[in-house]
Design brief:
By secondary structure, the chain is of the alpha+beta class. It is built from 17 helices and 41 strands.
Length: 687
């Protein structure tokens, strides 16, 4: 029996495992890097162990430090979570060699599937359909387009689409570098690229007694840069006959390597029902909650039971209803989807009914009480605790590694949370999830929230037309447009200005009881300016005995530092306003708006030279391709930053000359640091 479990991971997956451990009475042990000292997973564990350092290579990828941490904390078992060392056979073996229980598949099974190259050959021998593997050095014009993939790992790291032979060598080199950084293995290979496939995966669970469950399928076709954005179960593509073939192939894949524990077999499918094996992830998946909500199972509880030697019943539960998950990332759509770092002032989702689990005993989204299913006689008493139950109405679940007040750093993945909804039908689930996201309070960082809501409400998504070319076909920029249109942004700016005036009046030492925006002698209107997504917005208003007077046909109702009511004709809107240093966040039914106050008298030292290229986020300079005095052309790569497990290319904004280059390879830079200055070439200078 497992008594004390160390999770060799961080963030939301560590918190997810802890939730089940608390229900089981298992003592939890967290490990944390110096960058994660105050992270939620470190704050809520029973025992915490420091891993000195900040980068993944210094901490969460150090098997020796993790084993030492388990021993120091008195843990008797290790759960790997996902990412980092979760699919590292050597780490699994080291855990076993240390006399600890490994909550995962055998090292041999991990090793068999650890190389995508070797695993494809193994699957082909087991009768599972596969795509041909191509040696990058042997790719010809006839093979194009191809997809470069890292042999180890996943999550889109080390992945590149190549359409011409000329770009192949450079993309292979970049993929190898990214794979080496993310997984410690630079091996890559190529396979035919299918632009409009459907990414379908099957969750498997196997015990040590020979039983293998296939727990339905998930569809994860909507991806950006080969990283999943939306996942759902069941797939709108899959019918009963196709589901049976998928499950047969998945169980055959698991049986071929003597698999034990939770795993996922991924396939690339076409609309005619044909599919090919992509890879097997020998761990719990990021998107496992959708399977939990449609089956009523607690997959982490099942992992623990299997690790303790329990036997699965012959048959798994069937899927009921529909679940959809989205990944909320800190990234800026307006600036090439750049990962964001900094303080997360507020992160709340008012619609939430459960965190990290089912909705047993909670109230569903439409006011119906969640019900625990009657015990299944076919399920052993030991496994009864893994049955989670589902709500009769709508379940809104949040799995997050961050909380209000946390600081998001550049050292790890920028995913803030997974938001998952279960409902009786797919349309209900999509509508409820879009509504929950739109109503979330996310202050301090730019996110992909607007993209997620627009996708969930798009007619093509609601029709189930969700292949991997979804963003190409419907336009990523169009889908990422702000939920708040220009008019909503202007109204939000008015609310922000009135709230600021009310806050100043409330803080005044004299005349605190006077109305907001009061002036003894009214002359010119008061003005405040904000930078909004649509551009600069100037707000003018006057205060008098009759209240606040506005232009543009607006009238103000109740005005306070945190809430403002505005009416246009007979229609009244309420705006919630939260002000922070250099940022004002306004939430309303019209959509969330982030505004930056425009300073009337900016400090001179805040100005930078024309042509300065600023660091978009904290990171390390890993390569510099130019020197001072070099002539460059617009779009030419100048240097590369590494942050959040990804490489970010910094390019010249215009034709010109590099007149300043204050950074060198290996230097750590903060956000906003000047990386280079490119002085535009004038016509006279070029003659």
């Amino acid at each position: 029996m497992i008594k004390r479990l160390l999770v060799a991971n961080r963030g939301e997956i560590a918190r997810r495992v802890f939730r089940t451990c608390r229900e089981r009475g298992i003592t939890t042990v967290a490990v944390y890097s110096d960058a994660d000292a105050r992270a939620p997973h470190a704050r809520e564990a029973d025992v915490v162990v420091r891993l000195p350092g900040v980068t993944a290579a210094e901490t969460y990828l150090r098997a020796d430090l993790l084993i030492e941490a388990a021993r120091a904390a008195g843990a008797d078992a290790v759960h790997p979570g996902y990412g980092f060392l979760s699919e590292n056979a050597a780490f699994a073996q080291a855990v076993l060699d240390a006399g600890l229980t490994w909550v995962g598949p055998t090292p041999e099974a991990i090793d068999a599937m650890g190389s995508k190259i070797a695993s494809k050959k193994l699957m082909a021998a087991a009768g599972v359909p596969v795509l041909p593997e191509l040696d990058p050095a042997a790719v010809t014009e006839a093979d194009l387009p191809v997809l470069i993939k890292a042999s180890a790992g996943g999550g889109g790291r080390g992945m590149r689409v190549v359409r011409t032979l000329a770009e192949l060598p450079g993309q292979v080199e970049a993929a190898r570098a990214e794979a080496a950084t993310a997984f410690g293995d630079p091996t890559v290979f190529c396979e035919p690229y299918l632009a409009t496939g459907r990414h379908i995966e099957v969750q498997v669970m196997a015990d040590t007694h020979g039983t293998v469950w296939a727990l339905g399928e998930r569809e994860c076709s909507i991806q950006r840069r080969h990283q999943k954005v939306v996942e759902e179960a069941p797939s709108p593509l899959v019918d009963t006959a196709m589901r049976e073939r998928l499950q047969h192939a998945a169980t055959a894949a698991a049986a071929a390597i003597g698999y034990v524990g939770a795993g996922t077999v991924e396939f690339l499918a076409s609309t005619d029902g044909a599919f090919h094996f992509l890879e097997m992830n020998t761990r719990l998946q990021v998107e496992h909650p959708v399977t939990e909500l449609v089956t009523g199972l607690d997959l982490v509880a099942l992992q623990l039971d299997v690790a303790e030697g329990a036997a699965l019943p012959p048959n798994p539960p069937a899927m009921t209803g529909h679940a959809i998950e989205v990944r909320l990332y800190a990234e800026d759509p307006a600036h090439t989807w750049r990962p964001q770092t900094g303080p997360l002032h507020t992160f709340t989702l008012p619609a939430t009914t459960t965190e990290f689990g089912s909705a047993v005993g909670l109230v569903g989204g439409f006011g119906e009480t969640a019900r625990t299913p009657a015990p299944d006689a076919a399920v052993s008493p030991k496994l009864q605790g893994a049955i989670a139950g589902r709500a009769a109405g709508v379940v809104v679940r949040v799995d997050s590694g961050v909380a209000s007040g946390d600081v998001v750093t550049s050292y790890y993945d920028p995913m803030l949370a997974k938001v998952i909804v279960w409902a009786p039908t797919r349309e209900q689930a999509a509508r409820a999830l879009a509504s929950a996201l739109a109503g979330a309070r996310v202050h301090g960082l730019v996110t992909n929230r607007d993209l997620l809501v627009n996708v969930l409400r798009h007619p093509a998504f609601l029709a189930g037309e969700t292949d991997t070319a979804f963003f190409d076909r419907h336009g990523l920029d169009e889908l990422a447009k702000p939920l708040a249109d220009e008019d909503a942004q202007r109204l939000s700016a008015v609310a922000a200005a009135l709230a600021a005036s009310a806050a100043e009046r409330a803080a005044a030492t004299a005349g605190a009881g006077l109305p907001s925006a009061w002036r003894n002698v009214a002359s010119a209107a008061q003005t405040r300016s904000y930078q909004a997504p649509c551009g600069r917005i100037d707000v003018a208003y006057r205060g008098g005995r009759g209240g606040v007077h506005l232009d543009e046909g607006l009238t103000a109702g109740d005005v306070g530092p945190a809430r403002v009511e505005l009416s246009r004709g007979p229609v009244r809107y309420a705006f919630d306003v939260a002000a922070f240093d250099g940022l004002v966040c306004v939430d309303s039914v019209l959509g969330p708006v982030a505004l930056r106050p425009v300073e009337r008298f900016p400090e001179p030292e805040a100005q930078v030279a024309t042509g300065s290229l600023l660091a978009p986020l904290p990171g390390a300079v890993i390569r510099v391709a130019v020197a001072e005095g070099d002539r460059v052309t617009a779009g030419q790569p100048l240097l590369w930053l590494e942050a959040m497990k990804m490489q970010h290319e910094i390019t010249a904004p215009t034709d010109g000359v590099v007149t300043s280059l204050p950074v060198t390879t290996g230097r750590q830079v903060e956000v906003g640091a000047v990386l280079a200055v490119v002085t535009p070439t004038t016509p006279e200078a070029s003659e």
